[in-house]
Amino acid sequence: MSQWIYFFDLWGTAVFALSGALAAGRHRMDPFGVIVLASVTAVGGGSIRDALIGATPVFWIRDPNYIIVILATVLACLLLVRRPRKVPEYILPVADAFGLALFTVIGAEKALNMGLSGMIAVVMGLITGVGGGIIRDLLCRQVPMVLRTEVYATASIIGGIGYTVSLAYGMGEKMALFLAMASALLIRLSAIKWHLSLPAFDLKTKRE
Questions:
Q1: E strand segments, 27-155
Q2: What is the pLDDT of residues 180-205, one digit of tens each?
Q3: Which InterPro entries match (predicted)?
């Protein structure tokens, strides 16, 4: 992994850790609960990805900097985000959107470096982007965001496809990464701002 991609990976870890910490605050968890929720949100998707593609031990076991970033993010959140200052409603989904865009491309990039196909790279990008959020939402006893009608997984898939296709057509790695991240982020933020959603599969049983 090149140095600048590694930097983006750590940045994405901090962003998703913040997302998990804010979700823990919404559910009034204690400091240990905040650490747990921030950690699973930040490294959950990447851990599933590494286990599936055989990149073991998983990344955060091989590099403790990820744990340091998570703990530092949690500490900053606990110190800075306190009452009576109320955290705006949009902060959590926006932080999650940035994490989704970053981790989608990082996951796809890692799969391609392992010699896997473009289709599998898109799937690994999706798992990396949404896996931690699924675990976070389940621990908070919520329906995972990716399973709701919101445009969420779609943004990740489009970002992953954009990255793999751009590389296949000879675009430079940096440009492909920025383009894919920007597209996934733009789609997700647009969905948040204008409440865009996919049609629900509403299967109602007919009463006798």
A1: none
A2: 999 999 999 999 999 888 887 777 75
A3: Gly_transporter (IPR005115)
Integer Cα distance of 55 and 49 in angstroms: 8
Pair 116, 124: CB distance under 8 Å? yes
In angstroms, the CA 194 to CA 189 distance is: 9
Residue 132 · residue 47 · CB < 8 Å: no
Which residues have C-beta within 8 Å of that of residue 179, sequence separation ≥ 6? 162, 163, 166, 171
CA distance linking residue 172 with residue 16, whole number of Å: 27
Contact 152, 191 (CB under 8 A): yes
Tokens of 171: 């675009």
pLDDT digits (tens, 9 = 90+) for 40-74: 999 999 999 999 999 999 999 999 999 999 999 99
Query: How many CA atoms are closer than 13 Å to the CA of 95, on its beta-carbon side?
Result: 24
Dihedrals φ, ψ of 90, to 5°? -80, -15
Burial of 88 (0-12, 13-18, 19+ CB in 10 A): exposed
181: exposed, middle or buried (Cβ count in 10 Å: 0-12, 13-18, 19+): buried
